[in-house]
Amino acid sequence: MKTLAMLLRQPVKSLIGVLLLALAGGILCAGVGQYAAAAGTRKAVDAVYTTVALPTNKYTSQVIELEDGTKATVHSSDQPWEVVEFLDALGEEHPELVEQTARNSLASAWCPRVEPLSLTQAKALGELEEDGGPGAVLRNSPYTCAALAVTLEEIGEPEVQRPLNLNDILDSLGVPSDGAGEEETSFLRVMLSGTVTEAVFLSPGYDDPAGYTLRVTLEVADEAELAALRLETGRQYLVYGTDYRDCDWELRQNLALMVQAPVSEIDLANIEPLDPELAASLNADIELRGSEPVVALYNAEDGGRSTYLEQHWLDDRNACALTVWSDPLIPSSRSGEETVEVSREDGRTEIPAGEYRALYGHPGIVPLTGSVEDLVAADETGLWERALEQARVSDRALPVLAVERLESMVQFARQETHLSQGRSFTAEEYAQGSRVCVLSDALAAANGLAVGDRIDLTFYETDFDQPDFGEYSSSNPTAAIYSPALGFAGEAESYEIVGLYHQSDQWSQNLYSFTPNTVFVPSACVTCQTRTGSGGVFQTIVLRNGTVDQMEAVLAEAGYEGLFTYYDQGYSAIQDSLEQYFSVSRLVLLAGIGAWLGLLLLFLLLFPLMQRKNAARMWSLGASERQVGRHVLAGGMGLAAPGVLLGALLGYVLTEKLTARLAAEAELELTLRSQPWVTALIALIQLALCLGAVALCALVLVRGARKGRR
Q1: What's the confidence (pLDDT) of residue 169?
Q2: Number of continuous H segments (helices) and E segments (strands) in the chain
Q3: Which of 57, 202, 203, 694 is such that its CA lies 20 to 30 A from the CA of 654?
Q4: What's the pLDDT tens digit per position in 38-73?
Q5: Is 645 left (phi over 0), alpha (psi -120 to 50) or beta?
Q6: H or E segment at 306?
Q7: Which among 19, 27, 13 has a CA at the least distance from the CA of 598?
Q8: Looking at the whole model, is its pTM more than 0.85?
Q9: In the chain, what's the furthest Cα-to-Cα distance?
Q10: For the chain, which residues make up each domain, given as ranges?
């Protein structure tokens, strides 16, 4: 109390001490605070911006020499093996550049609550050659299973077919082959035509085909199997296939592309037969070019574009198509074999063809004399029941991409896709494999789902032994067609919807696209079999922000210039400003620490160390060392406590202004804010350091007094 009273008896001097420490504290808090804001900004920027490196197709082409001596370029959607090895080792060899090689995998899941979006809602169908590249295609699989009742009207002549094999492909390229290893197999193909009377099962994404002409491609093993079907015109049959095509919709889609109009504006009633004289005049020139003759004209409404049509276009009006087969050895090109190689847990093995047919046989085509329910109930083979089960599950199947880092997906990196609601996955959810998912906002809206809702996913594996397991691609991957022989991989699991993504083009056809039916989940939560690849949506190399130039130098040294194209979500536009800001921020930090040390030293010289005479006087009057030290320490504390508190308040204000000024000087368009807890922590550390310094001064004074007395 006497020490504090002494401070109050010298108000001007005490005030100077407090202000000196307040200035020191303010400078330190401002210097450290703005640097903490800079560090927080860097972390926030890295969380917002993701730089990805995508392999280009520069090294995917190969020049081969044909039999006649000419050379041809063969394009592939896969990188050469040496490039794949280089990419796989890149992360380990250059961790300073590569933050992560994000690998994704594809699973299939049955979700009875969700009706997938159909390609009939897409803007394009088929290959996109302009910028899609090899393999860029949209598929409607697995939503193509169909069971239709049809009245046969035409039965074509059976044609012997030989499955395309490796030697055929080599021959088409002009590459010599010895024909070894290829056994001669054949089957019969018969073209059927009739009128659909009922869609027993069909994805709701398609128009009702009742009344349409159904073109059936029937594949059978031989004449005996064809005769056993007892096909007759005028009779009704039930057919099943897994590759249904709505030719009428495809015609409207193609017309929309030709006249550059929305599909909704295409009216097939605007197709008119050509006047015979006009047709003859047009076709005289067309035949010279080797093209098919035109027979009709499509007149777009409201003065839009028009286009001439050939007969095959007209044949697609009110028509649909389906491939039908009963023997699963036919589409798998193994007709006539006694054994079939399939996958088992212990590897590949041979099983009898009869056993394979029992597992994977389709019902094909059968006469329909009563109701479908009666036919299915009377089917002792169970083929129709299994086929309808396959159709029902496949119709509500969703492609599930198990990801290691959602933001590294190319569509997100290009900002062609972004999270419109909710959030992405957290680091903890990735690590723990939490049951959370992200859906497209289009899929959610169509099914009345929102962030916070839950959906049940029942995963099933791709059965590669099934001849119609579906199509596999690194772009726009789809779920596999469900296999009743393999069944589900486990029980249904509940997933919480934590975010919705929005695509600027829901049905894009580039090599890195995915359809709006795609569900994203953390990789660790999927434990069943998955499919993956080395490109497309399956692999992305994530670079540390700002390291593109260094990566280009690494590529040049390895001889792979032009291997990557980069997307950094605009980070390069702010990179110079960020580097300038961080550089200045470090200088301000060092200057702040230096100024604080100087002011603290000045405070110690002017106040605690100036108590030397008082300490000596107290010692001469018989005060103990503890009493002398306590007196000096209390005096220093009396000045340090209010000084540090005022310094913290001053530092917080200065930090706000300093961060804003530095950001403005660096032309950095980011909001930088100091954190109050950082200022409070700095004040506590500063108070502890001040008290430690004062205590050290007290110790020096006590020892000096003792020495002087001796």
Answers
A1: 47
A2: 19, 25
A3: 694
A4: 777 777 677 667 888 888 777 777 666 666 666 666
A5: alpha
A6: strand 306-310
A7: 27
A8: no
A9: 133
A10: 2-48+573-709, 54-116+396-567, 146-177+187-326+361-393
